Amino acid sequence: MKPPYTRAQIQAASPKKPAPIGAYTHNHYHAFDALTAILTGDKPTMQHWSELANITNIMMALCMQNQISDPQGLIADAVEALRKARDRPTIRFTGVDRYAVINMLEEYVDLCKNIPERTIKSATNFAFNAQQHTRNL
User: Fold this and answer.
1) Chunked in runs of 10, what are the mean pLDDT values of the chain (137 residues)?
2) 69: which DSSP letter?
3) What residues contact 7, with CB distance under 8 A and at least 6 apart?
4) What is the Cα–Cα distance from 46 to 44, expressed in whole angstroms?
């Protein structure tokens, strides 16, 4: 599989300005749709889980690249919540776990409005490549 963005697309993205409004609406819609499916749906799927894991991986990549910090451990909490949800017979979040994922998604949406487009695209590819590497282990 190819990364979501080519090197040319990343270089063409603004290094100073956030992406135009609406550029990530598709991603945000799928993430919140996945969250709703896991919280309230009859049969949440691994695809729903994967949508949320992808956003979490992007947030982790931004931390690893020192673009953001996570002093309160929000991302680690979301990772743990996703791990626990995946390991249940039916993919579900419980109590505190649901808020960890909701807060992380809200933070991601805010970041997309404020962080340069090139940074988000670079982190997205970084997260994609890391995910591909761990699948091959």
Assistant:
1) 91 94 86 93 90 93 93 93 92 92 94 94 91 59
2) -
3) none
4) 7
d(CA 20, CA 67): 19
Question: Largest Cα–Cα distance in the chain?
Answer: 44
What residues contact residue 32 under an 8 Å CB cut-off, 6+ apart? 105
Among residues 32, 36, 13, the alpha carbon closest in space to that of 109 is found at 32
- Token pair for residue 115? 């962080």
> What's the rounded Cα separation, in Å, for the pair 40 and 93?
10
N-term to C-term CA, the chain? 16
Spell out the SS3 assignment of 11-52. Answer: HHCCCCCCCCCCCCHHHHHHHHHHHHHHHHCCCCCHHHHHHH
b/e per residue, 10-35, with b = 16+ CB within 10 A? beebeeeebbeeeebeebeebbbebb
CA distance 37 to 40: 5
pTM of the full predicted structure? 0.90
